[in-house]
């Protein structure tokens, strides 16, 4: 076959192969994303749901309303509390788990790796219900363990001070296994000789960790930092199932507020404005992380 | 500290970690087999005194969870099957087929990775309402049928296919569809295996969009049904745990049997950071 016909054949196949994915992503992802921006400057509500002619353009008043809305600030604060508390904690636990599982002395490596990973594959809604019982103030396993070692029981999900830490603890349990795997992959990519050379130079285990492990793990640390926080800014199912956003709104996240406003009260214009705030937060976070990544690379 | 002591301490910490990681799952299974009231007894029990499967029976008869199980199976398998084909075609095209506009299209998609799905949900609901897809299985399935993330992974993997191999097939007169089937698919099978497991698990566990799009109880997937039931049946701990086991076990089984492909995929895809 001639080169020109082949080139044409390839180009036609290219678009044909892309078509299903592009149509789906365009129609059901990019189009609604753009529409969300429009929605956020309208007063779209339950009347507009019945007849779209009832929706009017109201400019930035949804955003203004959010700024005046104490609940919006509560949700924003809760979301950051969760992400900033849970993100570093997840990375720390994942890193420790990876170091332990990957230690030269460790036996039954596959068993421990699998055991630590299992929480990650479980269904969030189901294990959130399990944890709701584990956290129960009277008969929960956790309080039983606390009182056994002589500590005071905690009203985990019933106390506004403890509800968010309880959700953070559960989320760390659920997610650390995935990031542990990424760290293990990072650790295994470090050349053995570097450790041997350091050992010959008389470097202690701690020195070897600081001077060999940490610099080599840098890129995966940044990668995990981005992914983990972006996921955590989108907190929803845990408070939906475990606390319904309470007590006293102490676990209402931005996404939960968006869901309630948009799909329970059908104030979809206002909910779209909340969704856009979330988008901006995630965008800023991603840009910061990309810059960090570029500096490390 | 001698090596033996170091090893002992290390494994002690590892075992405590494993107990902490597995305890909620173990308790869930144990509680689901306890007679009514035993899961809330003090001191807490970890082993049922008189194991019973009555809650599993009730889950299928009284709560009709067999139906939700079928719904979840239907949705998860359809999404996994269709998305694999659609994403594989697109990922390969981005990696290996040269044509005008390809790289621009790719960059636009890459920008989309920064958009959180929740931004899309409100207008998507309205679009689906216009299309009559609210409260249908397709309403749950369609948004997951193509994934930018999966296309990226496949593209990355397919880049390794040698151009000579494809060109040789073209000169022999093979059509692009045939090249995809006979040359490309066998090479990218490992990443497709990983993605199949990943897609199945994600779809099975997905909660927020099915919760929004499904209003008729008869079409609920397991997580949506479970969240709904857990409000009504707060007091029936053992019953709820049986429902949770039913929801978790299929994904756990898929993972345990196929973890080799899944874990390998996660570890390979992430080293680059």
Chart the SSEs and their pairings.
The complex is a heterodimer of chains A (297) and B (273).
Chain A: H1 3-39, H2 46-50, H3 61-68, H4 70-102, H5 109-121, H6 124-134, H7 141-148, H8 160-188, H9 192-200, H10 205-233, H11 237-242, H12 254-264, H13 268-296
Helix pairs in contact in A: 3-13, 4-5, 4-8, 4-10, 5-8, 8-10, 10-13, 12-13
Chain B: H1 3-32, H2 54-61, H3 65-96, H4 102-112, H5 117-130, H6 137-141, H7 148-158, H8 163-171, H9 176-205, H10 208-213, H11 222-232, H12 237-270
What does this structure look like?
Chain A has two domains: about 50 residues, no CATH class; about 230 residues, MetI-like fold, CATH 1.10.3720. Chain A is about 75% helix and about 0% strand. Chain A has 13 helices and no strands. Helices cover about 75% and strands about 0% of the residues of chain B. The model of chain B has no long low-confidence stretch (mean pLDDT about 90). Chain B contains twelve helices and no strands. In chain B, helix 1 packs across helix 12. With about 270 residues, chain B is mostly helical.
Largest interface: A-B, 101 and 102 residues
Count up the domains of chain B.
2
State the helix count of chain A: 13
CATH superfamily of the largest domain in chain A: MetI-like
Q: Total strand count of chain A, please?
A: 0
Report the average pLDDT across residues of chain B.
92
Keywords, separated by commas or semicolons:
heterodimer; A: 297 residues; MetI-like fold; 2 domains; B: mainly alpha; 12 helices; 74% helix; globular
In a nutshell, what does this entry contain?
In chain A, 77% of the residues lie in helices and 0% in strands. With 297 residues, chain A is mostly helical. Chain A folds into two domains: 3-54, no CATH class; 69-296, MetI-like (MetI-like fold, Orthogonal Bundle).
């Amino acid at each position: 076959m001639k080169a020109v016909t082949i080139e044409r054949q390839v180009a036609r196949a290219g678009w044909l192969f892309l078509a299903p994915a592009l149509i789906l992503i365009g129609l059901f992802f990019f189009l609604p994303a753009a529409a969300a921006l429009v929605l956020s400057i309208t007063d779209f509500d339950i009347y507009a749901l019945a007849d779209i002619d009832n929706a009017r353009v109201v400019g930035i008043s949804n955003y203004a309303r959010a700024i005046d809305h104490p609940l919006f600030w509560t949700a924003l604060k809760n979301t950051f509390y969760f992400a900033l508390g849970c993100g570093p904690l997840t990375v720390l636990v994942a890193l420790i788990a990876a170091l332990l599982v990957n230690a030269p002395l460790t036996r039954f490596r596959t068993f421990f790796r699998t055991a630590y990973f299992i929480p990650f594959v479980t269904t969030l809604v189901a294990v959130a219900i399990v944890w709701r019982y584990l956290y129960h103030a009277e008969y929960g396993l956790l309080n039983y363990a606390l009182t056994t070692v002589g500590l005071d029981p905690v009203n985990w999900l019933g106390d506004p001070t403890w509800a968010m830490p309880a959700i953070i603890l559960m989320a760390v349990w659920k997610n650390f296994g995935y990031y542990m795997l990424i760290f293990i992959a990072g650790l295994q990519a470090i050349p053995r000789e570097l450790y041997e050379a350091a050992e010959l130079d008389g470097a202690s285990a701690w020195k070897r960790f600081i001077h060999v492990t940490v610099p080599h793990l840098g890129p995966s640390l940044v990668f995990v930092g981005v992914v983990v926080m972006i996921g955590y800014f989108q907190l929803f199912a845990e408070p939906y199932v475990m606390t319904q956003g309470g007590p006293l709104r102490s676990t209402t996240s931005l996404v939960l507020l968006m869901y309630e406003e948009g799909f329970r009260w059908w104030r979809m214009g206002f909910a779209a404005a909340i969704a856009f705030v979330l988008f901006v937060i995630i965008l800023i976070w991603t840009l910061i992380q990309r810059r960090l990544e570029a500096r490390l690379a | 500290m001698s090596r033996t002591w170091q090893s002992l301490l290390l494994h002690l910490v590892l075992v405590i970690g494993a107990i902490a990681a597995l305890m909620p799952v173990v308790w869930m299974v144990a509680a689901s087999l306890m007679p009514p009231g035993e899961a809330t007894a003090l001191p807490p029990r970890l082993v049922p005194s008189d194991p019973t499967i009555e809650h599993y029976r009730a889950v299928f008869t009284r709560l009709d969870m067999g139906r939700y199980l079928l719904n979840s199976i239907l949705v998860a398998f359809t999404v996994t099957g269709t998305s694999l084909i659609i994403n594989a075609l697109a990922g390969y095209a981005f990696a290996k087929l040269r044509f005008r506009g390809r790289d621009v299209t790719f960059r636009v998609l890459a920008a989309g990775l920064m958009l959180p799905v929740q931004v899309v949900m409100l207008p998507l609901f309205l679009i689906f309402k216009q299309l009559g897809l609210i409260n249908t299985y397709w309403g749950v399935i369609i948004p997951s049928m193509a994934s930018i993330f999966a296309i990226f992974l496949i593209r990355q993997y397919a880049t390794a296919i040698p151009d000579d191999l494809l060109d040789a097939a073209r000169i022999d007169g093979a059509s692009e569809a045939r090249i995809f089937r006979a040359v490309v698919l066998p090479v990218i099978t490992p990443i497709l295996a990983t993605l199949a497991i990943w897609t199945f698990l994600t779809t099975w566990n997905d909660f927020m969009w099915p919760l929004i799009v499904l209003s008729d109880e008869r079409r609920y997937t397991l997580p949506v049904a479970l969240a709904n039931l857990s409000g009504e049946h707060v007091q029936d701990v053992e019953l709820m745990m049986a429902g949770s086991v039913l929801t978790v076990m299929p994904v756990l089984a898929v993972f345990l049997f196929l973890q080799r492909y899944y874990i390998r995929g996660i570890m390979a895809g992430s080293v680059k950071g």
